[in-house]
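Here is the promised in-class demo. Please do not try to memorize the tokens; focus on the logic of going from shape to residues.
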């Protein structure tokens, strides 16, 4: 492994050692004095501990937006053992040796996950005078540096360092999971100065670097990536379920010309039977020209919070007309103002982001959303737009502080609560920080180019984000800048069927990524891909509820489901949706690829011919084909082909059963738009497949009974030689026996 990048320059440091001290009881744990520091070990959640080291008095855990508010208190006990003292919960034990300041972490079975070793030290940069705290985490595993989850980059799943940051499609968070059997999240005294970490094979440890005099390291015993995702969600809060329409196809564009242009695009989608659920609009929806050339003092006629009459002369009526065709309105927002009077007002109140938080000159017009007064004012400005019918926001260029998008989304959530209380927020942002998932937002990978290389990198990028706590990843399908080709757009669309959010976008000087502009063959293949996407929505939407309930993301690396298969450890050009659906789309300019099938029995989607796992297979796929595989025992719900999600249910639900082992899947249905699911307005249909008796049974739980609930199913048994089909009602509990 390459040597890690240095996290701070080679300067001289003053080092404070850890020696001797006293013991005190803390609110949820114990405090140990290891002079000159105070060290605290506490229980943070039912699956997490907190290790705090403080050099300026009594430990004072940082208040952070990363963490779920109002954590539930969990039972714990104090542990004293041969000079060690610490805390114990159902998750394990966190212990400190008061004599020499060493510490260790064990799981619930008593296995040592982090071996005893020195915590670290307080340091001070003698040139700047700024203090640091370094926390060291020892490594006990024979594979200690197989580390995942910080969200860094699109080159590999495995990581060896993280310098948390946000940028153009860049989101690196202060978190990782190690195959040693634990996950770690670092929280500093300032959310906008998150700690960094580096794994060193030479030193046999991971070192965290925290700015300031205090450091909080949250530690989560977790034997697998799945367990880590659950623990992370328990500590930071689970992702909310986005509105159901956001699982459809989202057509984004910079360069919508006028009202006739929008109407024609809508007509083309409908008449050509190309499913779509949203149009996403760039600058042109609210102003006549981009604001990139606007000077710091602004322009007197710039419009920040209104509709451009060229596109929307009668916004409420026109948006209502779009919605009647099942198409939602999403509009771009920037974090800055362009109007002279508004800028003068904001500056007079101290609402503009302080200079120096970013190197971009445009900071002089950016709002500081961390200020509650700014959020209240901004929310009020959005209420009028929401009353016209806007359904979601596209938040762009907010990488001015680590938590900018978090507070920006809070303002947008506040606005929505005023206009449509109980409605789910949906935004798509160019970066994220821990805690953002609680809004149910999406994030996309930034301004990528229209190249095969970018397509090939995209799955890795999205998988890294899934592991970092962002389950709703997206990209500019087809590439943002440069003209895509019919073949590249088609293959990207096919891969996008298996992204959590399927959104195409392009710059204003590129050919719009409308399928009909790329020839008959591409349009036909894209239509087939979109039809498959929409058939998968009942499956994906149920996985979204699973993510809310457990924290486990929708899009998963094979390493999550097959942790003991070393060939899956860094594999990212194929991936899982849920546990059992393996997507392996073509990601280069050929019709061929190699696919690795992990152990077990697999089937090609919609095919009853079985394939042995634990092997590589070479596959070919014509332009309208996508290599997709389903594991034996899968119960896969597929909806009918529809034009948009408002058409659901649209007919019976097809339940495909792939034989070879027992299986189960829970279909989740609700109103798709409001937060009523949090109050129990939900319907769960638990399908269970018994392979020996060839019986599919189902049991219904919950009282939601809206018009969008499936009433009937068609069961397709994927047997060799052709599927066997049976039909039934799912209005109540029942079962079907599928004869051989």
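The designed amino acids, position by position:
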């Amino acid at each position: 492994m390459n040597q890690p990048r240095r996290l701070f320059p080679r300067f001289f440091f003053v080092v404070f050692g850890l020696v001797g001290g006293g013991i005190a009881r803390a609110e949820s744990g114990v405090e140990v004095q290891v002079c000159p520091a105070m060290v605290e070990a506490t229980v943070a959640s039912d699956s997490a501990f907190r290790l705090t080291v403080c050099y300026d008095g009594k430990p004072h855990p940082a208040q952070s937006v990363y963490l779920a508010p109002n954590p539930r208190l969990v039972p714990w006990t104090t542990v004293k053992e041969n000079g060690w003292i610490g805390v114990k919960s159902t998750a394990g034990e966190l212990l400190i040796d008061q004599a020499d300041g060493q510490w260790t972490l064990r799981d619930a079975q008593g296995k040592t996950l982090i071996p005893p070793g020195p915590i670290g030290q307080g340091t001070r940069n003698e040139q700047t005078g700024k203090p640091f705290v370094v926390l060291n985490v020892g490594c006990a595993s024979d594979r200690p540096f197989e580390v995942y989850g910080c969200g860094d980059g699109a080159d590999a799943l495995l990581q060896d360092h993280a310098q948390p940051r946000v940028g153009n499609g860049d989101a690196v968070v202060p978190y990782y999971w190690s195959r040693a059997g634990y996950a770690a999240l670092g929280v500093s005294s300032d959310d906008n100065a998150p700690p960094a970490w580096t794994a060193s094979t030479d030193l046999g440890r991971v070192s965290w670097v925290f700015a300031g005099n205090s450091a909080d390291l949250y530690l989560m015993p977790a034997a697998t990536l799945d367990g880590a995702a659950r623990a992370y969600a328990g500590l930071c809060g689970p992702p909310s379920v986005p509105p159901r329409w956001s699982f459809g196809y989202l057509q984004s564009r910079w360069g919508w010309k006028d009202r006739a242009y929008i109407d024609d695009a809508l007509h083309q989608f409908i008449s050509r039977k190309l499913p779509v659920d949203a149009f996403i609009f760039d600058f042109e929806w609210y102003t006549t020209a981009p604001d990139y050339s606007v000077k710091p003092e602004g322009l007197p006629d710039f419009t920040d919070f209104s509709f451009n009459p060229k596109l929307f002369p009668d916004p409420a009526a026109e948006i209502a007309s779009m919605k009647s065709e099942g198409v939602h309105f999403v509009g771009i927002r920037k974090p800055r103002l362009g109007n002279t009077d508004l800028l003068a007002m904001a500056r007079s109140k101290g609402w503009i982001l302080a200079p120096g938080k970013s190197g971009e000159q445009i900071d002089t017009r950016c709002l500081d959303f961390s200020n509650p007064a700014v959020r209240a004012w901004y929310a009020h400005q959005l209420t009028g737009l929401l009353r016209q019918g806007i359904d979601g926001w596209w938040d762009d260029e907010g990488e001015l502080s680590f938590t900018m998008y978090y507070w920006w989304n809070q303002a947008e959530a506040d606005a929505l609560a005023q206009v449509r209380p109980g409605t789910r927020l949906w935004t798509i942002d160019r970066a994220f920080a821990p805690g953002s998932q609680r809004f149910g937002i999406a994030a996309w990978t930034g301004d990528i180019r229209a190249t095969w290389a970018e397509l090939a990198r995209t799955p890795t990028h999205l998988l890294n984000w899934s592991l970092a706590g962002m389950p709703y990843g997206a990209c500019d399908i087809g590439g943002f800048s440069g003209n895509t080709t019919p073949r590249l757009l088609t293959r990207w669309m096919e891969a996008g069927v298996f992204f959590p959010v399927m959104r195409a976008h392009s710059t204003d000087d590129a050919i719009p990524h409308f399928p009909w502009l790329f020839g008959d063959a591409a349009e036909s293949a894209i239509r087939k891909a979109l039809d498959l996407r929409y058939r998968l929505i009942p499956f994906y939407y149920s996985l979204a509820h699973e993510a809310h309930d457990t924290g486990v993301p929708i899009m998963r690396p094979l390493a999550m489901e097959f942790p003991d298969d070393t060939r899956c450890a860094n594999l990212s050009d194929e991936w899982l949706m849920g546990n059992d659906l393996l997507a392996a789309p073509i990601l280069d300019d050929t019709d061929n690829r190699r696919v690795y099938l992990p152990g077990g029995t697999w089937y090609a989607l919609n095919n009853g011919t079985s394939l042995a796992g634990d092997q590589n297979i070479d596959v070919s796929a014509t332009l309208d084909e996508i290599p997709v595989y389903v594991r034996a025992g899968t119960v896969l719900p597929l909806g009918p082909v529809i034009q948009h999600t408002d058409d659901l249910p649209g007919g019976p639900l097809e339940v495909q059963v792939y034989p070879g082992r027992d299986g189960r899947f829970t279909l989740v249905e609700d109103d798709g738009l409001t937060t009523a699911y949090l109050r129990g307005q939900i319907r769960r249909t638990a399908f269970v497949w018994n392979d020996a008796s060839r019986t599919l049974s189902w049991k219904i739980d919950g009282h939601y009974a809206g018009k969008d609930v499936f009433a009937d199913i068609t069961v397709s048994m994927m047997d060799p030689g052709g599927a066997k089909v049976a039909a039934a009602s799912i209005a109540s509990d029942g079962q079907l026996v599928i004869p051989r």
